[in-house]
Amino acid sequence: MLPVSLDTVRVFLHVLAATVWVGGQLTLGALVPALRGYEGVTKVAARRFNTVAWPAFAILVLTGIWNMTATEMSDQAQMTLNVKMAFVLLSGVAAFLHMRATTKRALAIWGALGLLGALTALFFGVQLG
């Protein structure tokens, strides 16, 4: 059996948080059309998702900083990381604005941008791995 190291724990926590943040958005997005038929259920589901999504985002940021300080990077990897961080920022800001949105149009736009940012950040994160 391979030994468990602090590096393994760091990457595990980062990937686990990403599964909650990105996977949760995909799952909730798929469920919303089915939930719309029940008065108030969509908002309740979104609020409950936020109770796990935002802590996961915080863990992503913290473990991301830990990842950056724990590994040496080439100039190309650093550039990829910078691009990833721009999409992380887009994902977080758009998700926050989605939470604050009051119109269906704003909900759709900010929700789509949040998911796009999350998926793109995930792609570049996998590329860095």
Q: Strand-and-helix sequence, N→C?
A: HHHH
Q: What is the 3D form?
A: elongated
Please describe the biggest sheet, giving its number of strands, its sense, and whether it closes into a barrel: none
Structural class of the secondary elements? mainly alpha
Write down the oligomeric state: single chain
Low confidence ranges:
none
- Percent helix: over 70%
Number of domains: 1
Mean pLDDT: 96
How many distinct helices? Answer: 4
Measured on Cα atoms, how large is the radius of gyration?
16 Å
Please report which band the strand proportion falls in: under 5%, 5-15%, 15-25%, 25-35%, 35-45% or over 45%.
Answer: under 5%
What's the number of extended β-strand segments? 0
Observed structural traits:
mainly alpha; elongated; 129 residues
Structural account:
The chain has 129 residues and is mostly helical. The protein has helices at 6-35, 41-70, 75-100, 104-128. The chain has one domain (6-128). The chain contains four helices and no strands. Helix 1 (6-35) runs antiparallel to helix 2.
Summarize the structure.
With 129 residues, the protein is an all-alpha fold. The protein has helices at 6-35, 41-70, 75-100, 104-128.
Task: Show the helix and strand layout.
Elements (H helix, E strand, L loop, with lengths): L5 H30 L5 H30 L4 H26 L3 H25 L1
